[in-house]
Amino acid sequence: MTHWLQRTALAGLITLTPLAALAQETPAKGANIVVTYKDDIATLDPAIGYDWQNWSMIKSLFSRLMEYTPGTADLVPSLAESFEITPDGLAYTFKLRKGVKFSNGREVVAADVKYSIERAVNPKTQGPGAGFFGAIAGFDDLSGGKAEGLSGIEAPDDDTVVFKLGRPDATFLHVLAINFASIVPKEVVEAEGQDFGKKPVGSGAFVLKDWVIGQKLVFEKNPNFYVADTPKIDGFTVEVGQEPLVALLRLQQGEVDIAGDGIPPSKFLEIKNGPDAADIIVDGEQLQTGYVAINTRVKPLDDVKVRQALNMAVNKERITRIVNGRATPANQPLPPLMPGYDKDFKGYAYDIDKAKALLAEAGYPDGFETALYASSTDPNPRIAQALQQDFAAIGVKAEIKALANANVIAAGGTEGEAPMIWSGGMAWIADFPDPSNFYGPILGCAGAVQGGWNWAWYCNKDLDARAIEADSMSDPAKKDERAKLWGSVFTDLMADAPWIPVFNERRVVAKSKRMGGPGNIYIDPTRVINYDAIYVKQ
């Protein structure tokens, strides 16, 4: 514990690394770029937004106490200038940078930090990230509607924030770097109400200058951002309503700089084998799992035998071929690169006969009818059709509902609405590199709430208790023990089959030839696209 505290104390003295240190070329001055997506953005409110499209934009609009060195999962202080942790790991004291201002001109103070995190936890916000802050003292009272604030956050002066935890939390510094911990100005949030997500005010590298619903979002450089030489571009425009094939063609013609939806599988081999492949493709591993969420509160999916049968019905090898083999079949929620992944776990084998037998045992020898929701962006409808065919082989008739990402997310976060969801297009990519992130928001009881991302509406209090036990192991000497405990949580969870883990996919981004910087800022492990770090070559 002492070694960990010494190491963390040293981290508290590190200044935020200027992004210029990562540059391999000279960034062009005054550059603006164009990014495309098929679907519109639902919200830019950091307490509510939680999909892979808006995640990167929210990251760049707001600041947090902690941040990551670009392209890595290495934590550094950001809005915080320094921090200290008590030997028992139960109190964190942060000193804020002086002179940091919101884009409306008001200085950021400690009370803003307290308000912002309390807002993320408050059930009235209906945000999906409350559970991340479960270790803070007073969490149960606020999340349960018995208090208006968190007793475990204090702001003794404008420059100091103190967090008091009810238990040690090995992930707490990571939690303070995720979007839900973004700092917002109370007076603007209260004045805008539900419109704050369309009119965000933060202290990040960019500000939102214009948003034409269904057409575009325009972001401009924040001239007062506190990190030196950041961002590298003067602005970026996100064009929405753009089919991925059209976006890719425009990128090849120099009209688009980043095709946000990636390279459609139908064009991947052509692009990969083309003369420009090295200049426009960024391909890398990510902490991702694509899965089918099975709503455990909807009949007949509330029967574990039915869910197990659905797991056995899916031919995952065939589905990976739909994405040109840019994925490997999955058998558990954790991706292979994540600590805690159990390489010896076999999961549910593809077995049509056994699946049919389980359905018969559950009282459905002739199957049943249900619905499968999916993103309407290619290749997700085709994957949904493959799943539909697999389910039909055991007598389950699944109607496909292909919708915009925001609509799928809304259906998943509404109890009883979506029986099954293919997560592709919003598939789970780690917010930070820790197994807890694959549990709390998407499989834990805290995520099974209105607006949450636990689309299986699965709640196992025994597993929740083991998850808390694992996250309380903040001593690095217990790292292996903690990973093993987390691994057992996920493999034991699969006995209840709230998910069909389908594949772990590599991320492939298409960027124009003029874009510069290392590939890992285009597939950033904590941002997806790091708008703060990307640039146009001179």
UniProtKB/TrEMBL annotation:
Keywords: Signal
Subcellular localization: Periplasm
Annotated signal sequence range: 1-23
CDD domains: PBP2_NikA_DppA_OppA_like (cd00995)
Domain Solute-binding protein family, chain residue ranges per copy: 75-447
Predominant place of localization: periplasm
SUPFAM superfamilies per the UniProt record, alphabetical: Periplasmic binding protein-like II (SSF53850)
Any one GO biological process: peptide transport
Record-linked InterPro entries: Peptide/Ni-bd, SBP_5, SBP_5_CS, SBP_5_dom
GO CC terms of this entry: ATP-binding cassette (ABC) transporter complex; outer membrane-bounded periplasmic space
PROSITE patterns given in the database record: SBP_BACTERIAL_5
Top-level taxon of the source organism: Bacteria
Family: Belongs to the bacterial solute-binding protein 5 family.
Name of the protein: ABC-type dipeptide transport system, periplasmic component
